[in-house]
Amino acid sequence: MSGNSIGKxxxxxxxxxxxxxxxxxxxxxxxxxxxxxxxxxxxxxxxxKPGQSRYTTQRREDDEVKILSGIFEGKTTGAAxxxxxxxxxxxxxxxxxxxxxxxxxxxxxxxxxxxGERDYRGGGRSSARxxxxxxxAGGIAKKYLQERLGVEIYxxxxxxxxxxxxxxxxxxxxxxxxxxxxxxxxxxxxxxMQALTKEGNSIGAQVTVVAKQVPVGLGEPVFDRLxxxxxxxxxxxxxxxxxxxxxxxxxxxxxxxxxxxxxxxxGFLSNNSGGILGGISSGQSIVANLxxxxxxxLRIPGQSINTAGESVEVVTTGRHDPCVxxxxxxxxxxxxxxxxxDHYLRNRGQNGDVDSGLVSVGPxx
Amino acid sequence: MSGNSIGKxxxxxxxxxxxxxxxxxxxxxxxxxxxxxxxxxxxxxxxxKPGQSRYTTQRREDDEVKILSGIFEGKTTGAAxxxxxxxxxxxxxxxxxxxxxxxxxxxxxxxxxxxGERDYRGGGRSSARxxxxxxxAGGIAKKYLQERLGVEIYxxxxxxxxxxxxxxxxxxxxxxxxxxxxxxxxxxxxxxMQALTKEGNSIGAQVTVVAKQVPVGLGEPVFDRLxxxxxxxxxxxxxxxxxxxxxxxxxxxxxxxxxxxxxxxxGFLSNNSGGILGGISSGQSIVANLxxxxxxxLRIPGQSINTAGESVEVVTTGRHDPCVxxxxxxxxxxxxxxxxxDHYLRNRGQNGDVDSGLVSVGPxx
Amino acid sequence: MSGNSIGKxxxxxxxxxxxxxxxxxxxxxxxxxxxxxxxxxxxxxxxxKPGQSRYTTQRREDDEVKILSGIFEGKTTGAAxxxxxxxxxxxxxxxxxxxxxxxxxxxxxxxxxxxGERDYRGGGRSSARxxxxxxxAGGIAKKYLQERLGVEIYxxxxxxxxxxxxxxxxxxxxxxxxxxxxxxxxxxxxxxMQALTKEGNSIGAQVTVVAKQVPVGLGEPVFDRLxxxxxxxxxxxxxxxxxxxxxxxxxxxxxxxxxxxxxxxxGFLSNNSGGILGGISSGQSIVANLxxxxxxxLRIPGQSINTAGESVEVVTTGRHDPCVxxxxxxxxxxxxxxxxxDHYLRNRGQNGDVDSGLVSVGPxx
Amino acid sequence: MSGNSIGKxxxxxxxxxxxxxxxxxxxxxxxxxxxxxxxxxxxxxxxxKPGQSRYTTQRREDDEVKILSGIFEGKTTGAAxxxxxxxxxxxxxxxxxxxxxxxxxxxxxxxxxxxGERDYRGGGRSSARxxxxxxxAGGIAKKYLQERLGVEIYxxxxxxxxxxxxxxxxxxxxxxxxxxxxxxxxxxxxxxMQALTKEGNSIGAQVTVVAKQVPVGLGEPVFDRLxxxxxxxxxxxxxxxxxxxxxxxxxxxxxxxxxxxxxxxxGFLSNNSGGILGGISSGQSIVANLxxxxxxxLRIPGQSINTAGESVEVVTTGRHDPCVxxxxxxxxxxxxxxxxxDHYLRNRGQNGDVDSGLVSVGPxx
Lengths: 365, 365, 365, 365
What we know:
Chain A has 365 residues and is of the alpha+beta class. Chain A has helices at 38-48, 107-115, 131-149, 186-199, 226-235, 256-259, 324-348, and strands spanning 5-6, 11-15, 22-28, 65-67, 71-72, 75-76, 81-86, 152-160, 163-164, 205-212, 240-245, 263-264, 267-268, 276-277, 280-281, 286-292, 302-305, 311-314.
């Protein structure tokens, strides 16, 4: 029943259900001297927030984060940063219909089996609302990485159901409600999503996250590899069923001559490795893809059982995202930032002992 | 420079390079009373061992494991289990050719940049030899899980380059040098691999691992999810570039009605979730796929740089696996076993507090 | 800058300064099904609260704890429990006098050197106010241990400056403002403390904590011993300079025949070991003493330096405890409870594998 | 059953019983570039080794350490360092007498209750032999701290039974078999120990360890304080029943004016804090005392029970230390070094963010 923490030197611990008084987190390990305020964290929280467009859930959550500690005169002090977001509207609607049954492909069943007790209102701890705190915590990491190291982190939806991004226009990403980088496909996406909503169904998505200008040397060989820790952080996001780095599953059918990233004095000639070699950042861009399953809260009835083990039909009537993958973009960015920040802090102490005598190389994929 | 441990209550810590005196590990947290001997661990070590067939590297490693502690009168005592495998033939061949240059897509470059010092003989800590200790440690977990809980773990190559397994015959897996479950494709694989070896090239592969009869309730919500920890364990295997659970990347284009695993009193009707819901085991079979990249040690020359930053041509002359994915099968099984064992130990204490009042359901995918 | 967490399976992470918006903590790992409410935690918070008597600081802190998550219908769900105590009166008095100087024997100097930035208001993270959250978290552990296992935890001041408790009357402890178990010494203590306050000086104290009815088998050999973890938990309380278990420093001059706790079928004949043998609980009462230094906030001037490295005279004018040891009693009880709870959760999973075939023995020291 | 690791970034994991094939450890996190060989570690191992004098056990252990990994061309590479010491003479004597009974004040009873299984030969995991690996691991930390930071670590017996060191002559410590710093008391110690041995009894001792020239800023506020971690490391040594830092238990009867360490531009005027303020090193010498109990292996019979719960008389016939405190000196030094090394690695990354603008001050106690 533990396990609500991530990171070794930059540690984020979260709490909260969607129907309690508040959700919150503690960010432990942020170095002193970073200028930070709630206003820095709000834009990413707003990107994650439901109700932003027709294509995400219409529930209104007022995701206003409060920083309770760890900041003095506008800067971090090195002390633990406590943050909360109050649940303004936590008065429960009527949950009596779902209280005693298990929605298919939902944490309902496993929570019930594991804990006996279950806060069925809004999914309890499995609620997507929990991810708001990840975004807040990740915002601190993002700001540090950008200001101190020049690391740029961004994410986007690279595929939504059958619709694949074929062009990449970075400036387009924030211009449409899908975080989609291909301006030619926006109309198609809108049509697709309207049909899906009407049908009462949901759809999966692929999210891509990228970190540019990452220092060489982050990650530890063997178990605490950067790619392993990144897989942990990303697979731990609600609804994620797959993670790949660089060429990922395409590697399966690649030959060595095709996959290997040749090097020249001017830099790498490709980035199939996705910026990580032997578990350690190479200085190239870190590139990861996430597969997000379609949500299981559907208006189309499905078979299930209740807590008495009897057969029931389940149908979800509330407001739900037809594609949870869209809102996962800022969450995935946050988890990437948290992972890099942790490894940066683990690594930077090492520099005093090391002089590789070599300037880093590293172009872009 | 730390990070050589995995697991919270069942903790494996490893050490060793291919050219030192020995490699070894400590398995900390195995419960007392398990009958175990080196003979129990040897079969999986032999499955991983190079030189077993034409299609894996011809280096002869005599992977004979010695258990140094933690066993008394044939049974575990609850004390830490120390194990080593001596490097019989650690006298170095001439490494002067690769000492000062970086093989493309290899840990050479990142180790050099991170540590300054580098044991270039056999890849040092990035050597596949390190994985022998994972297999030994995993063997203990496997035996415990099987004997005490009836968990069955197995793995296989589900795709090798362009060749996909279309039939699944479990008994076939150990009958061919590719751990391939489709008896109709063995001849094709042999032809393919011979051509590849002749060419001096390498190829990627996809490995699938399965755990049957897993107890319900393993894994913690939020960060220490079973799927997240499994992703960490599997992505941390050398050459792995992607991990997916259940439907994985197929989820991206699935609709909710297609993806959701409906339930009946007799059990689940499908297993797109791969046995994990909300980060917690559901009692269904856990199914994970791994993408393994083609090795970068090729007889076909490639561009690179040396430690002075100058352009060089690199060619590998030694014996190397044309497909490292094949030998990854027992390693992936071991990492799955270690992860399940750790979560089993974290979970089993919880049962005293919980009575879900429901018998588990759970058929097979 | 990390390090705000304690415990492996029952993990408490805290945040907050005395002059921020709130202090708080996350209790991660409490099993489901425990009835708990803020009202259960308030009595110990009140025992710790300053301003309770003439002999502790007269600052009024309204230590009202709010539970924000992890409780549903009055019971724990197994989810992380977030708690906060708002700082009602965090408007700073004038700190300009101490802003640039270091109080002798205070964390001022080391915080300044370590972090550069320092929240000088009320000591920032070194404030005794932080310990309120430990008491709240410990309250949950205490309740679990008592209800489920019958463990009884209590503490008292066994020595205050030169005044040593010579009689032990448990019912007396909560009847006087010193948590002192010897009713014959209360008048003497009052006289002593009045003189001390008048003088503007402070005094050290020894606190004793006891846990009765502890199950046999808690603690791990070698590093994670119960006594080692207890020493960690207790030495981590503000102002503690020494920790001893059982006979403690008296062991130095004991002979083996004097120290050893002989056993009979009816139980142990003594408890020099303080309930822990080989790092593992024996079933006897766990007994630990803590040495608390006198606070360094004095009305008697002392020499120090300022942040420019110049000589200054320091004098504290505010309200401060003449004996911080008194209020440490509930904190020490909390840390003992947290440590036992963590080891209980680590251990209880082990029982399925073990049948010692022996009933526990264990009388009282 | 886990818990055989210590340290977060400099992590030591140990294994081994006195009657297995070997004992060993893994040192994970040593920075690259440190020159180290077995010869560097042997002197401290020899100081710990039994059979060195009449006053420690006469068992001959040939504590020759082998480094198996992590060193290349005489220097650390940053990889995990595996080390073993073979048990040359592990053939068991006849243990049938103690197999089924519990020695009073020994781990026999708690191991039996916790694990069911017990390696009764030589105490299994509770054997003092385990501490040899701590000394080896600590030797690496000691060398790093000394070479890179100029930290000097030493220890001595400050009290043995009733005999207290009244003079401190550092050069005397290694000149007598008691690690005793007072040359005037050596004759008295010899007489005392001879009488004790003749009597078949044992005696407690107090060990003091000191670290000079420790950098300012090691340790984290709240839970991972340097003093708390040091208490954990030292209390985890076999037979230790108490730990104090600086003035320790003397603080109990000190007034604030007496205890506080005043500061001048030239440095601190006293060191009651033992070099740690608010959990963070102050730059003064770190000074800790340990109380070691008398061993419970005595030639004088005592009452106990057997595994059937029946009353028995226990007497130890083998060779045993009359004062285990003596050999604890190098072990305590090692644990101090390991703790400082871990906090040094956790801290040094922080320097880039911090400029306190103040030169450290710090004289000697």
